[in-house]
Amino acid sequence: MKNMRKLLLFISIIGLSATTFAQENPKQREVGISFRNFDSFGLTFKTGTEKSAWRFNSLLTNGTNSNNTLDSVSSKLSNFGFGVGIGKEFRKKITEHLEFRYGADVSFNYSIAKSNSNDLSYLDEDWSVIHKYYYPGINLVLGFNYLFNEKIVLGAEILPMFSYHTHINESVDVNDVLTKESTSSFAYGLSNTSIQLSLSYRF
Q1: Nearest CA to 161 among 176, 142, 183, 174?
Q2: Tens digits of per-residue pLDDT, 29-76?
Q3: Which pLDDT tens digit goes with each residue over 88-120?
């Protein structure tokens, strides 16, 4: 009986602590759309509390397709890219409608560009080139949230990055001979894709 009372007391304390923690750290989620460089868009989802949250971002670079003909040579060009990022951000309230945010993401970006050319003056000979780019990396997060109300949030952030670039070039000549070349490099700092805007719904 004595052990039972101790067990009930222990459960009550744990339950009270969990309730207090939940009251102090209410769950908060955000879902929205994001933009970079005005030609790439994506989705963003965040889950956590009003002080910190896990970040999940996807980014889609607008793909293009084009056909060109110059003299007897016709060519087709296409490109496409996407990126994903997972990280953690921390928030500090400045005013009723303004929040400061900082944190970091682990990211991966991929893009591909293809070109096919056909020379009609040489017995319909054709050749193609494919460029593939891989960008795993880490970026910092520094930004602000402007709260229009309790639900609608406008976000702006800069993303200083450090990444490892791999470029694979595959070409097929008129004799169907495949040639592959690969180069790698490091990059860091800011670029034209280092600024991200977002519009989110908080719940």
Answers
A1: 142
A2: 999 999 987 778 999 999 999 999 999 999 887 677 777 776 667 778
A3: 999 999 999 999 999 999 999 999 999 887 766
Amino acid sitting at position 124: D
Give CA separation, 176 vs 126, 169, 173, in Å.
9, 15, 5
Handedness of CA 33, 164, 53, 101 (dihedral sign): negative
Would you call 25 helix, strand, or coil by DSSP? coil
Q: Where is 173: in which H helix or E strand?
A: none
Q: Taking a C-beta distance cutoff of 8 angstroms, is the pair 45, 58 a contact?
A: no
Rounded distance, CA 49 to CA 79, Å?
A: 39
Q: How far is CA 12 from the centre of its chain?
A: 43
23 has pLDDT over 50: no
Q: Say if CB 95 and CB 138 are below 8 A apart.
A: no
Among 178, 176, 177, 159, which Cα is nearest to 168's? 178
